[in-house]
Amino acid sequence: ANFEYSNYAQTMYDLLWRDFCDWYLEAIKPTIASDKSQQAVLRAALDCILRLLHPIMPYVTEAIYEQVRLLPVAGVAGVTLGPARKGDLLCTAGWPEIDVSLRDERAEAAFERMRSLITMIREVRSQHLVPPKRRISLHSPTGFLNGQELALVQTLAVVELASADSIPAGAVAMAFETAPLHLSNLKDEATAGDTGAERERLQKVISDNEKSIATLEGRLNNPGYAQKAPPAMVKQTQDQLAKAKADRDAARAALAAL
After folding, report:
1. Contact, 52 vs 12, CB < 8 A?
2. How far does Cα 141 stand from its chain's mean position?
3. Spatial strand order in the sheet of 179-184
4. What is the pTM of this model?
5. Helix, strand or coil for residue 174?
6. Structure confidence by residue, pLDDT tens digits, 76-133
């Protein structure tokens, strides 16, 4: 209505690349082949996204839709996808109609909690140069994760659950909510005891986050940015600042424990 085309395009980019590709598709990989319900939701979700993307990417979405429309359709309660009005062209199909009852704020909050934990584990893996397929150990208190949450974390963070009562030397502590979490098996035994390398890594993490904190605080303290930037962008900057501070503090605690 306000011709904010860039916001529309950016929202769709985030939906497709982050939510659909990076999280949803990766999460259902272990079960999609045998789960008819997941297959129906996947088919409906892709159809919805193509329709919403069409004004931005008409030729690409039209070409993909030629294949998607041939896939079997299983109804998803609360999702209405009207047929194309002229032939099989996506450009004549209606917008997806989604019943408001499908909005589940509790499920969204639960997933965001797991997304935060998985992102934190991925960052530790990256900082320690852990190979993508190496399964590391997550030490967490009993009951911290339920079965569904554990399955999600195991799939997306490539971890296995380990006891919090037996934490090996060299395990990395993580500050997540109020639970004492640790990651181990990040390296082979030959290099696991190299505290000098770990000390150097933590010092770099602290330094990098200090620089980020200074930059983000400067941006938020600038009246021009705080008053004129879109609220969503200001909120994103505030979240980045909070995360940088949490990462710095976690690294300081881990450094002090060496």
Report:
1. yes
2. 23
3. 159-163, 136-140, 179-184, 172-176
4. 0.69
5. strand
6. 999 999 887 777 899 999 999 999 999 999 999 999 999 999 999 998 888 777 888 8
